[in-house]
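Weekly puzzle thread! Below is a chain. First person to post its structure in C-alpha cell form gets bragging rights.
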Amino acid sequence: MDAASCAWAILAARAGEPSSPAGRSFRRPYQENGGGTGSRCRMVQAVEVSASWPAISSLAAAASAGIAALAAWQARQTAGTLARIEQDRFQRETAPVFRVFFQADAPQPGFGILFILFMGGPADALDSVQVTLLDTMQIVPEFLPDGITEDEARRWIWAGWQFNTFYSVPGALALNPRQSHPRPYSRKDGQDWEQLYLYETTPPPWHKLDLKQWQERWRDRPLRLRIDCRVGDSELPPVYRSIEVKRAGGTPTAPET
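Winning reply:
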C-alpha cells in the first residue's frame, strides 16, 4: 500500500471512531517504513488508555489552580519582604537616637541607676519620652501553678530590675514599677538626659524560688527596655534596647556625648 492509500485508510479509520474513545478497543492503521523507497500500511489491534475528557479537564484545572496559588504565595512573600525593608528604612530615618547606660549596685547593692541620653534624630526636641521595662523571660501558661492565671502572672516583672517608686529624690519617682513618667527631652535647652532609679525585683509569693535564688537567676541577664517618643500628636517608632548590666560600687557618671 502506497503512502496515499495509507493516508486514506487512516482517515477512514478515524472517521469511524466514536467521539469518546475511553475504554474502546479498535483497529488503527499505521504507516511502516519497509526499508525501501516505498512504505506499507498495516492494521493493528490497539486499546486506548481508559480516560475521559472531563477527567482530563478536571486534572488540568486543578494543575492551573495550583500554579495560580503558588504564584499568589510568592507574590505575598515578595510583598512582605518589601514591606519589612520599607519599615526598617522608615524607622532608621524617623526614630530618635539614644545612648543608654545602666549601673548596678549604685548607690548601694540591690539598687541601680539607668541613664538615658538623647543623641538626636529627625527632631531636636521630643515632647514625651517614656521608658518601659520589658520581660526577660516568656510566660508559659502551662507551667504556672494551679490557680494562677496568665493575667495574674503578667502583673509581675519577669526580669531582674524594676523602677523605684518610693525613692526620695525629687522627680525620680516612676509612674509604676514597669514604666517611667513621660517627660520632654530637648537638645536646645540641655534637658536631653535623665537618670532613672531602679532596684532588684522580688519573686511572686507563689513562685518556687526564694529571694536569693530569684535575684541570682537574673543577675547576669541584660536589661531590656522600650523607649516610646512623641512629637506633637505624632508617635515616633519605638526604640528597643538590650543593656548589659555592669556591677560596680559607687555612683557612676553620666555618659559623655
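Puzzle host: Confirmed. Bonus trivia for everyone else. Helices lie at 3-15, 53-94, 150-153, 211-218.
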